[in-house]
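[Q] Does anyone have a clean structure-token version of this?
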Amino acid sequence: ENRFGDCKDKSTLLFSLLKKLNLEPELVLVATNRNDPKRVIIPSMLAFNHVIVCFEYDGQRYCVDPTDSQTHWQYTPAWVQGKVSLPLTVHTQLGQVQKSPYRWKVHTQTKIVFDEFGGQKETQKRSYVGEYAAAVRSNLFELNDDDRLNKLTDEYHEVISSIGHPEFRVENI
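[A] Here you go.
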């Protein structure tokens, strides 16, 4: 009716769609403020404030948060990794949402060319992967093109050099 949904609505929809694909998804409650299952005495709605969908596909387990538009479906969003979880299945136990061993992956290609005056031009291509890609994307997503370039230029001047004149091209936001 309102054309929007919260985590329960979107997870239920995703759950149903995955079942239509003959996968065996499960709804999983997540306590986003808790990391240790041993410290949850009684599962309650006060502890569990989020729901995601987990399933096996091609020999791998995936946990998807359908409210997260920035994280690729093959990666578990960083903010729920390691949090206390409770699958809504028969004979289930408290556990934790799986953690990625490599949350901050980036591929970089760098080329430096020196000119005849001793100056240099560096060209670098970065490809962010997984949860890191989602973090970078979410930092830039809401900005317009000019604001993105200004943000990246400011970060370059703060971290790399204040005298350089960087040029950026942002793709696949």
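[Q] Thanks! Anything notable?
[A] The longest strand covers residues 105-114.
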